[in-house]
Known about the structure:
The protein is built from 4 helices and 7 strands; from the N terminus they run βααβββαβαββ. The protein is α+β, with helices and mostly antiparallel strands. It has one domain (12-154): Aminopeptidase (3-Layer(aba) Sandwich). 27% of the residues are buried. Residues 32, 38, 84-86, 91-97, 117, 121-123, 125-126 line the site of coenzyme A (COA).
Amino acid sequence: MERFEAYEKLVISIEEASEADIEVLIDIEKSLPQTNTYSAMYTEDEWKQELAENKIYLIKDREVPIGSVAYVERSLEHIYISGIVVRPEYQGKGIATNAIKGVLEKYRNATRFDLATHPDNPALKLYESLGFKVEERKENYFGDGEPRLILALTNTHGPSAVSSFE
Ligand SMILES: CC(C)(COP(=O)(O)OP(=O)(O)OC[C@H]1O[C@@H](n2cnc3c(N)ncnc32)[C@H](O)[C@@H]1OP(=O)(O)O)[C@@H](O)C(=O)NCCC(=O)NCCS
């Protein structure tokens, strides 16, 4: 029998999340292997608070939610990227890179983007490839007993984006 693999292109879109999406957001967190380099959020209360304080977007492949990206507008000039997650089976395809580029493009007039990540998180390479620089290390930053690095991208006019957040 002849076998072949069908190649299906991803069709990525970004949609703002609401409380109706909390179950989906938790499901995405649960799909990740547990590690000390990332504090996953598994409860409805945590997500309610997160939704109240952040702009949260679901990343979808057609209608299938495959990740999330979140940020806080500290001001129109200063954006804090508070979260980025991609389901393991979709990782390594540039989805997180493009989602973050989408935020940088949306706020192309901002002068500062920053975020916090664990020093051993492989995402560090992703952020550095986008031009983020390590500013400082903070111990127990999220209260999980683990250190975080604060990274910032400053004085930028933003690269051209692939994702759209309009
Ligand atoms: C971090 C994360 C969102 C990256 O998603 P992704 O869509 O796979 O990222 P990309 O495909 O855009 O990766 C870009 C680069 O980041 C680096 N990278 C990201 N995740 C990596 C991983 N798990 N292992 C090794 N390298 C990784 C690689 O350098 C990669 O470039 P390459 O593919 O050319 O080698 C995903 O791994 C994830 O959900 N991790 C768990 C949650 C988490 O830690 N989030 C970050 C919190 S600060």
